[in-house]
Amino acid sequence: MNYTNFRVLAFAAIALPIAFLCSCKDQQKAPDIMVNIGPTMTLDSQDTIIVNQLSTEFIEHLKNLEYGDAIAMLYYLDPDSALIPLPRQLAIRQEQIFRTFPVLEYKFESIRFRTESDCQVKYVITFHKKSGADDKDYVTSLFLQPVRREGQWYLTVRDSSSPAGSVSEIQN
Question: Which stretch of DSSP H or E encloses residue 111?
Answer without folding.
Answer: strand 105-115
